[in-house]
Amino acid sequence: NAGVMQNPRHLVRRRGQEARLRCSPMKGHSHVYWYRQLPEEGLKFMVYLQKENIIDESGMPKERFSAEFPKEGPSILRIQQVVRGDSAAYFCASSPPGSLAETQYFGPGTRLLVL
Amino acid sequence: QKEVEQNSGPLSVPEGAIASLNCTYSDRVSQSFFWYRQYSGKSPELIMSIYSNGDKEDGRFTAQLNKASQYVSLLIRDSQPSDSATYLCAVNWIPAGGGNKLTFGTGTQLKVEL
Q1: Which residues of B touch A103 (CB under 8 A)?
Q2: What is the spatial distance between Cα A26 and Cα B106, in angstroms, rounded to a whole number?
Q3: Which residue has the higher pLDDT, B93 or B50?
Q4: Which of A59, A62, B3, B36 has the smallest count of CB within 10 Å of its CB?
Q5: If pLDDT is split at 50, 70 and 90, which confidence band does A2 have?
């Protein structure tokens, strides 16, 4: 049973470019979460999605960041016009439907470096 | 603002000893509590979850929850060098609008010394 998959594992972008991070949840999981971990800081919640719906985006910066979880395919976190402060590890987590929805399992992360 | 606080450490314990990791949280309506282990450069790995007051044991790990004191801890018995990692405390609550949201502490670095 494959775990949460994320790609790419490492991404280098120059300032002003776009970054697209992909996440495929564990099989049977319908809830996807994105977190950001800045160097020497804790994990910060960004957004919570179910298929075709954004449930909670209270942790997303108001500009340049967007997320989607389409009916088919992976969830995508998109960062437009990246700046150096966007350099961080971005983790996706997934959880199953129902009463176990709280238990989140993390993918390997995407390390974004903005030059 | 919901907060989760942990001592950043490092906490150093000798091999074979009991490591005690502590976490306090500020929100009284939090639903569930989790401990994750994160090795340097890796992703968080779920170790334990606990939902009700008391102790929960799983192998060498014991999670303890006291909701009245807003306190959750993780004990690691017979600590091994492979336990050396950062341990993240996470608290979940369900916002008024629905959904799930984990709030993480900044983690406690554990070093198990030979």
Answers
A1: 34, 46, 49
A2: 26
A3: B50
A4: A62
A5: confident
Neighbours of B97 (CB within 10 A): 8
Instruction: Yes or no: say if B44 and A4 are a contact pair by the CB < 8 Å rule.
Output: no
Alpha-carbon span A82 to B33, nearest angstrom: 34
Across the interface, of A45, A58, A107, the residue whose CB is closest to B102 is A45
Mean residue pLDDT across chain A: 92
Residues of chain B with C-beta less than 8 angstroms from the C-beta of A108 = 42-43
CB distance B44–A58 less than 8 Å? no
Of B30, B43, B13, the residue nearest B72 (C-alpha) = B30
Task: Output Rg (C-alpha) for chain A, integer angstroms.
Answer: 13
For residue A49, what pLDDT is reported?
A: 92
CB-nearest partner of A105 from B46, B99, B100: B46
Sequence letter at residue A68? E
Q: What is the mean pLDDT of residues A6-31?
A: 96
The minimal CB distance from A104 to the residues B31, B102, B105 is found for: B102
Least confident stretch, A1-5, A57-61, A80-84, B60-64: A1-5
C-alpha torsion angle, residues B34, B90, A71, A74 (rounded to 10): -100
- Whether the ω angle into residue B10 lies within 30 degrees of 0, i.e. cis, is yes
Taking the C-alpha atoms of residue A35 and residue A59, their distance in angstroms, rounded to an integer, is 9
Contact at 8 Å (CB) between B71 and B54?
no
